[in-house]
Design a protein that fits this description.
Elements (H helix, E strand, L loop, with lengths): L11 H9 L4 H24 L1 H14 L10
Length: 73
């Protein structure tokens, strides 16, 4: 995976604390950005598919699911 150098501004006290705790800033930033990206993708997918999800839920409430008569639990 290609890496790119960036310039960031970070609260000085927070940076000192992270260095004191030997926190890898690059790895931590990458991890947080990945998680935030996944969350945003989920949010956008849910928003884009909101109407279909609601229609599906209404149909299930009205008709049930296909296995309702087969389940024994």
């Amino acid at each position: 995976m290609a890496k790119k150098a960036v310039n960031l501004s970070v609260d000085a006290e927070l940076l000192a604390k992270a260095k004191e705790m030997e926190i890898n800033l690059s790895a931590t930033l990458e991890e947080v950005l990945r998680e935030m990206s996944r969350e945003e993708e989920r949010r956008r997918w849910q928003e884009e598919n909101k109407e279909a999800i609601e229609a599906f839920n209404r149909r299930i409430e009205r008709d049930g699911i296909w296995s309702d008569g087969l389940r024994r639990f």
